[in-house]
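Interim report, section 4.2 (structural modelling).
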Amino acid sequence: MKNILVIGAGLSSSYLIKYLLDNAHLHNWHITVADADLIHAQNKINNHIKGTAVSLNINDSVERDELISENDLVISMLPASMHILVAKDCITHKKHLITASYISPEMQALHIDAMKAGVLFLNECGLDPGIDHLSAMKIIHDIQHKGGVITSFKSFCGGLVAPEFDDNPWNYKFTWNPRNVILAGQATAKYLENGELKFIPSSRIFTQTEEIKVDGYGEFESYANRDSLSYIKPYGIESAQTVLRGTLRRKNYSINWNNIIKLGLTDDSFIIYDADRLTYRDFVSAFTPGHGKENLELRVCDFLSIKQDADAFKKLQWLGLFDNIKINLKEATPAQILQNLLQQKWTLNKGDLDMIVMHHEVKYINEIGNCELGNKKLDEGTKMNTIISSLVVKGENEVLTAMAKTVGLPMAIAAKLILTNQLKARGVHMPTTAEFYIPILKELEKFGVKFEEKFV
Amino acid sequence: MKNILVIGAGLSSSYLIKYLLDNAHLHNWHITVADADLIHAQNKINNHIKGTAVSLNINDSVERDELISENDLVISMLPASMHILVAKDCITHKKHLITASYISPEMQALHIDAMKAGVLFLNECGLDPGIDHLSAMKIIHDIQHKGGVITSFKSFCGGLVAPEFDDNPWNYKFTWNPRNVILAGQATAKYLENGELKFIPSSRIFTQTEEIKVDGYGEFESYANRDSLSYIKPYGIESAQTVLRGTLRRKNYSINWNNIIKLGLTDDSFIIYDADRLTYRDFVSAFTPGHGKENLELRVCDFLSIKQDADAFKKLQWLGLFDNIKINLKEATPAQILQNLLQQKWTLNKGDLDMIVMHHEVKYINEIGNCELGNKKLDEGTKMNTIISSLVVKGENEVLTAMAKTVGLPMAIAAKLILTNQLKARGVHMPTTAEFYIPILKELEKFGVKFEEKFV
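Predicted structure of the assembly:
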């Protein structure tokens, strides 16, 4: 028998735990789910004979150490900064570890220790990062193994509401951590375009978008992610003249969100004291040039160069930004006040399903010699090819969301591969090699997590 | 005999040390100047019989403690974060302390200890903060003592190049820490206007400027400082419907500096590695939408909505932003790269003199009853008055700059007042009461640091 420990029983663990319990009899696993809140853990186990729910104070080193020592593999669903606590115990007790988070410098520093302990610390094995690595690396390696040279790599991913439940003017509802949505784009975006280094400062990330069409799902747009450059080396695409990763939203989301940023409402750098003495109207008025609250609508339109009967204005109005309703937070940053308002507007209603969209566009040339990249014309003999690979996953219900499914399944499948000795890698890794992407992508397909590829 | 210790012998200490040495015989003082670099300290003492230069490693607690124990009063010209080291030794040895920096929470926490030790820790006693407090409080108290009620308080200050040496298209040269100029306006500005709370996010601080005329010196403009609201309580101007503090520049500086911010060149949040492989042209191109370095000028004009023959474009060009010259920094943030370039352009030439401008505009009403403030009309009987108070100080030479004079003299005079028992305050203070502003402003006038007041 093998023992698996899942730490963290939040919404995003639902599909992961379901998979492990569903496969527990077949592989003779016992699943322990630990959470600060025992009820959360119990709800996930739901009296399954192969499962145990326990409460865990993650900062109690004795408790943590004991629990980890009793298991063969640990899946940490904790906030990213807390994985390191678990990782150090996993070194001590020689246990495998899986996370869906970016490899932090502290985690990377454990590489040699994990190798010596003979264990695999597999990180970035959720959706994004996770399925993006798996699917991109399969395409990249396929091209490279056939002698092709990659000239452009673009990859986009977004968590959205499924079209059937898309019933608000922003075509967006929160399906993941709302705070991350409010604070999106607050760091400079860095990417490569036609051989040139490109930076987009945070003040205009939402103005430089790219249009994306996904067959059967219509039009989307993408704004640039923080750091696309850091993918060049791990992906082995140093030949690419364009490398861009972005976040997907429905068309026109960005230009309207940019109006909110221009006003300054996403500011998270200072606290407004006695915010509960202000209405949302006062709040917006404070950020709008000019004065006089009675003509706030005009001032906002003036400042944003939009008309009061324009769609852009109606979207702001729909959010309740001009309402004379008191803010129900005592001390909060502008970003927190905005989040508090939007959580009343952009919430999934009962029965609403979410949707994940991932989309890669990879360009490559077949002949290695005689080619010039970037802006310059290719020689006549050189053929430029484009592969488009798209994934759309809809939630099954309010618990088994598309987000929980695409974040949880890759980790669950990886856990099975480790415990059945199908993975040779040891030390700290992300899933960019064939031993990861071939079996994981294959099994994901059985769950409907399947990319559609086409050449254009 | 009284012993005075000045810690820090940089450019900004020149006038302070000169005053102390010039007055040493009269008051029977001995002045010790301590600096990490002995040569700096020696240059300031210049073999004066009443002075001693010593080298000091500020982090060596034994060295620091001994030096402080031997003196009666300490003036710390260290970077703001380091005053606290000195302050704690001053508590131990019961020594007075003077700084030109904002009172940090750590400094404020020493208030009771300093009172118990019977010493004065006088902070914010330079130019800004310093002369701004002294001069504003004199006006405010004069009005209030006559029964007036302050309805608006605006205060502006800037360090500039004197008009005779103002020979570049930006009408600006660095006369103080260049890094602070590059990073100016990167925090949200907060102020009060006509009774309404106002916020300006960092992305548009340089677009919301106010025009200021100073008799005999022409037109200036001001952009809002970080936090004007925090002055309401210490100044006792809770009656004011408008409270705004700003930084002065010559006209049109802000709109042109805003173009640099829009491009993203003041970004200090990430490092460009191998920056020395890039030219300034590559650097600007990376931040400009579109691609193709040959048409960079067009792309910049397009992005900023300016014409290539416009003054705004010529100002960018004059800075060397389009030059094909390699950046001579290996690893640097965009802000550091920009600073490195601007330090070659905005430097005071040999013989150039600097200039300090400070300008207050205070509005008040005489009758206390029967008045409505803000947007509303005042009753007929109520008289609205405005006092304008302006200070212009030019540097005497390259060492005795206007900046060194206006930062150093208030501290030097305060030191004299303390050592001649003319100040009763004990504990942690800023100079907002009459016992400070009356004698300090009076003596500053003898040095030509004199406000011109007028009623309009």
